[in-house]
Amino acid sequence: MSPRQIVIAGYGMAGSRLAEEILRRDPGGERVSLTILGEEQHLAYNRVLLSGVVAGTMKAENVTLHGQEWHNRVRLGVSVTEIDRDTRKVTLTDGSTIGYDTLVLATGSRSWIPPVEGLFPDAPGVHTFRTLDDCEGILAAARPGAPVAVLGGGLLGIEAARGLVGRGCQVTVVHPVGHLMERQLDQAGGKVLAKQLSTLGVEVKLDAKVNGYVPGDGLKLEDGLVPADMVVVTAGVKPEIDLAVKAGIAVDRGVLIDDCLRTSDPRIHAIGDCAQHPGTMAGLVQSAWEQADVLADLLTGKNVAKRYRGTPVVTRLKARDVDLAALGEVHVDTDAEDAEVLCLNDPTRGRYAKLVVKQDRVAGAIVIGAPDAAATITQLYDSRVPVPSDRLAVLLGRALPSEATPAGSPSELPGTALVCRCNSVTKAQLVTAWRAGATDVTDLASATRATTGCGSCRDAVCGIADWLSTTT
């Protein structure tokens, strides 16, 4: 029996992971003949870590996901321009066509530039922050002491701003909403974050209406000018759905998919940023990689009962000297009748903690400047175990469920504890990999993929590695 022809349109974090998972399940290509198409000229890389490249704490080669051998597996610099669903063929940018039995859309998303006079992708001094090429452009333009405006105070904007301050730039974050990271933080948490950023050298302008951009001058606001030699646009992204729309596939904000990751055409699947599933929020690496794992099982026939049910949202800010975690339902008021809501607000010391409990389980939380509390609450959220009765101790990071322990006490951490959320790696998996010969963090990452997602678990993995080195 000949293998089924699978075409993956997109070689970003979702498409590359799907390719890995398929090859891991079918290394000899007996079940699947795989074609991987990548629009960029680079091998797959971790977009989540690009802020480290801007900050100078990581080099471009440090964020690459695949080795040079992948040049023989991927067609780089080409993308799909048209889908013929009747003949099951795709047309590529180089004019060639490829037939498929199953097509996977992993086209990701693109930076959105607000409709502001003078602000467009090719305008002098304007840079988006989405790709490795974007990083190279930003770094080439960044000059110590020069004024820089970051347009957008979401997660990506804060990371870009902190990275550019580390390069010696004078950075102003311009945000149209009343507080930073409004999707992940409430107003009080956003205020604490803004104050903390100000102590690190980042100026913040909120409720800012931008009327125009003048190259060499900066952003024109209703109440004045934000001087900027360079503007980094981090105002949001738009899922790449044009290909699906053109092919008549059902879309909303993204390409609509079911629990089997199927679109309205059952021969076409979608994963990652371009896909819209009711159980997850777009833009999360963890959801993209969980979708890839499910779809690889389905496409190779390894487990045809596998389904994707959604991914709980946990956001970690990856900016030096800022420790922030937000998860679940964060916009619940303290007087909500269906929840217990506790808050601790200490803006002078850059700390804020909010815990939302429903039916004795963690339903949401915001934790700034309190890493022990963030670790405890995240473990409670992941494990879905009851919250200890002393809620205040949990909020302060001083109480732990029987299944959990701070990252600093790996000996007491249960084997089932989730250490790397992005890759669903438990302590037990790390221990097994260690005993099989992966005796440092680099080897553990290669064996389990821990630390290769958002990178926020690296300290915990280092702690477990140190513990194992003294006990085995």
Helix-strand blueprint:
Layout lengths: L3 E6 L3 H13 L6 E7 L11 H6 L18 E3 L3 E5 L4 E4 L4 E3 L2 E4 L3 E3 L14 E3 L3 H10 L5 E5 L3 H12 L3 E5 L12 H13 L2 E4 L4 E5 L3 E4 L2 E4 L2 E4 L3 E3 L2 H5 L8 E2 L11 E3 L4 E2 L8 H16 L13 E3 L7 E5 L11 E7 L4 E8 L2 E8 L2 H13 L7 H5 L22 E3 L4 E2 H9 L5 H8 L9 H14 L1
Helix pairs in contact: 1-7, 10-11, 10-12
Protein model, in words:
- This protein is an alpha/beta fold.
- The protein has 12 helices and 27 strands.
- It has helices spanning 13-25, 50-55, 132-141, 155-166, 187-199, 242-246, 285-300, 371-383, 391-395, 427-435, 441-448, 458-471; strands at 4-9, 32-38, 74-76, 80-84, 89-92, 97-99, 102-105, 109-111, 126-128, 147-151, 170-174, 202-205, 210-214, 218-221, 224-227, 230-233, 237-239, 255-256, 268-270, 275-276, 314-316, 324-328, 340-346, 351-358, 361-368, 418-420, 425-426.
- Strand 13 (210-214) and strand 14 form a beta hairpin.
- Helix 1 (13-25) runs parallel beside helix 7 (285-300), helix 10 (427-435) crosses helix 11 and helix 10 crosses helix 12 (458-471).
- The longest helix has 16 residues, at 285-300.
- It is globular, with a radius of gyration of 23 Å.
- The model is unreliable at 400-408 (pLDDT under 50).
